C-alpha cells in the first residue's frame, strides 16, 4: 500500500513538473546568421520568460560577411532587436510562438554591379 502510494505520488509529481518550462533565462548564439544572404554576422540573444505564455528576447549582432555570401563588399555594422513572443503551447523540446519584433540596424557597405 505504501509503495503504491509512493509510486502514484511520484508519477503525479513528474506529470505536473513537465507542464511548465524550467528555463526562464536563455542565452542564445546564432551561428546560422553568418550564412545570411542579406545581413550576415554574429548574433547573441538573451530571452526571458516573463509569464507562462509570454517571453521577451533582446538580441545584438555584429554584421560582417566572412563567407562572402552577399554581393556587397566591406559590410560592417551592428543590429539591435527586441522581440515579444506569445507562446502558443508549452512543450518540453519545442515551443511554437507568434512574435512581433523591432529592429534597429546601422551598417556600411559597398556595392558594385549592374541593375
How would you characterize this protein structure?
By secondary structure, this protein is mainly β. The protein has 1 helix and 5 strands, in the order H-E-E-E-E-E. 8% of the residues are buried. It starts with a helix and ends in a 5-residue tail after the last strand. The protein has one domain. The radius of gyration is 21 Å and the shape is elongated. The N terminus is likely disordered. A 5-stranded antiparallel beta sheet has the order 1-2-3-4-5, with no helix packed on it. Helices cover 14% and strands 50% of the residues.
Secondary structure layout:
Layout: H1 2-17, E1 25-30, E2 41-51, E3 54-64, E4 73-87, E5 97-110
Antiparallel strand pairs: 1-2, 2-3, 3-4, 4-5
Query: What is the count of distinct domains?
Result: 1
Oligomer: single chain
Overall, the morphology is elongated
Q: What's the tally of helices?
A: 1
How many beta strands in the DSSP annotation?
5
Task: Give the percentage of residues in beta strands.
Answer: over 45%
Q: Report the average pLDDT across residues.
A: 81
Strand order within the widest beta sheet = 1-2-3-4-5
Gyration radius from CA atoms, angstroms: 21 Å
Class based on secondary structure composition and strand pairing: mainly beta
Q: Unreliable runs, pLDDT <50, ≥5 residues? A: 1-19
Largest sheet: 5 strands, antiparallel
Distance between the termini: 81 Å
Order of H and E elements: HEEEEE
Helix content: 10-25%
Amino acid at each position: 500500500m505504501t509503495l503504491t502510494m509512493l509510486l502514484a505520488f511520484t508519477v503525479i509529481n513528474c506529470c505536473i513538473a513537465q507542464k511548465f518550462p524550467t528555463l526562464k533565462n536563455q542565452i542564445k548564439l546564432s551561428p546560422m546568421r553568418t550564412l545570411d544572404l542579406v545581413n550576415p554576422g554574429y548574433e547573441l540573444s538573451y530571452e526571458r520568460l516573463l509569464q507562462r505564455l509570454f517571453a521577451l528576447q533582446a538580441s545584438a549582432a555584429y554584421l560582417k560577411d566572412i563567407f562572402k555570401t552577399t554581393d556587397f563588399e566591406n559590410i560592417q555594422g551592428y543590429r539591435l532587436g527586441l522581440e515579444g513572443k506569445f507562446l502558443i503551447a508549452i512543450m518540453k523540446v519545442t515551443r511554437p510562438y507568434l512574435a512581433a519584433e523591432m529592429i534597429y540596424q546601422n551598417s556600411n557597405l559597398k556595392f558594385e554591379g549592374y541593375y
